[in-house]
Amino acid sequence: MSPTRRTLHGPTRVPLAHQERIDRHHHLEHQLICPSRGVLEVSTPLGMWAVPPHRAVWIPAGAEHSHRAHGPTELRALTFGHLDNPLRLDRPTVLAVTPLLREVVACLTDDTELAGDQRQRRNLERVALDQLRRVEPLEVCLPAPADARLRDIARILRHDPADGRTLTELGKAVGSAPRTLSRLFRAETGMSFPQWRTQLRLHHALTLLASGGSVTTVAAACGYSGPSAFIQSFRHAFGTTPGSYAAGGS
Length: 250
Hints:
Elements: E1 4-5, E2 12-16, E3 21-26, E4 30-33, E5 37-44, E6 47-51, E7 56-59, E8 65-80, E9 93-96, H1 99-108, H2 118-132, E10 136-138, E11 142-143, H3 148-159, H4 167-174, H5 178-189, H6 193-210, H7 215-221, H8 227-238, H9 242-246
């Protein structure tokens, strides 16, 4: 089934229940989404992005995507015309947003904050565009492999991210040599297999933390040797500790 085209009507704030989905669609405008709580999972044919509250995701015009909420989530989004792409991004990208940009998004998506004040709204939209020129794109995508053997491995590890089998052992399960699989992972995802698996585990960790899991429990569920290794990996990827993230900090 082809994705539907949705028309965007300016800033929006959409509450989503845990596991609630927004089906695959696209739009003619660019969209900046900053969840104010929960974790928003963005899926495209190219891969998947997990977006916690202290990050944002840029959805370019025309990009097919769907959303899933992990934990009670609030989607806050700004809309920009197809010519307003300050980062010149052509695929969904997670961004390290500035505190000012977060505040601007919160203000623009508040139903009552700017009621009837179009001049102030336009000023804040210009500030948002200026801040977007300053943000840092983050390489936190989980690429979707196309090869059938890699898709089988991805399916195994998504079912159980703590599965500690080596690529040689996983290769036996899917009927392929580890050297071939290693080459395919680099060619199709731009990552080594260990890098791809780390990304998968971190994405899964975000969703578990959003659902109320403790740091110790999440570390074990994602295959880390202990909480310290998990905290170090999480901080490197997301700029905060899992404990601070779970408590709503940044």
